[in-house]
Amino acid sequence: MGTPEKSLSTALNARIIGSGNETIVLCHGFGTDQSIWDKIIPHLAENYTLVLFDWPFSGAVTDKSLYDHAKYSSFEPYADDLITIIDEMNLKCVTFVGHSMSAMIGCIASIKNPQLFKRLILVTASPRYVNIDDYKGGFESSEIEKLLSTIESEYENWVSFYGPIAVDANDAASVDKFQSCLKSMGAEVALSLAKTVFYSDYRDMLGKVQVPCTIIQSSNDKAVPLSIGNYLVENIKGMPTLEIIHMIGHFPQLTAHLKLVEVLKSIVG
């Protein structure tokens, strides 16, 4: 599992923890970095090989030139990066755990290279965030426009406002953790990334996902309504199952980490 020098995996702070027979790739979502998994790592590292890295937009990545606004205008380049990292680290038949936007990235990567993946675990995933016709993504177009406008003109205020909505407001330390990651990412990157995420629509891609798949959903998530979990189960081809964690917010790895660990262990075995 050696990592070549000056590789993409090195630039994106990829690392391996643990030495179990099952390899789990933990992939963070919008506005965060790999430290978002810190609470669950001690509970998994004894039994599994864990692989973590930071996306180019992350504030934890030193080389800021890696995030190119034009390149990362869709999730496909992220999927290509994921495949490159798995190849560079010589990983085989991984269990992919993708949070938020990374769930769809993992799905795309599994369509491109299905042999790399043993299973997909999609945590608070959504193929589309904007309501349309009979599809309820969670947001009206006007809400997304307002969100983007606020990120652009009042980023610090937006971070203060959005943190307690995305994360359970009753868990102040976890809200602070998410807000710290957002501040580290910065307003310019946040605006570009938010456009990519909130205007994405990967509903048509779901039927091509054939790798066995589990959806883990929060019971009370402002960004991803409960109906989305059922939508994913109905539209993903890869024998999907749905697990619901009773919690508030979009970040089970922060505010319901023991429940998430229990579910992950039950899936991976």
From TrEMBL:
Pfam families: Abhydrolase_1. The keyword Acyltransferase does not apply. GO terms for molecular function: hydrolase activity. InterPro entries: AB_hydrolase_1, AB_hydrolase_fold. Keywords: Hydrolase. The keyword Hydrolase applies. It comes from the Eukaryota. Residues 23-255 form the AB hydrolase-1 domain. Belongs to the AB hydrolase superfamily. This is AB hydrolase-1 domain-containing protein. The lineage of its organism: Eukaryota, Viridiplantae, Streptophyta, Embryophyta, Tracheophyta.
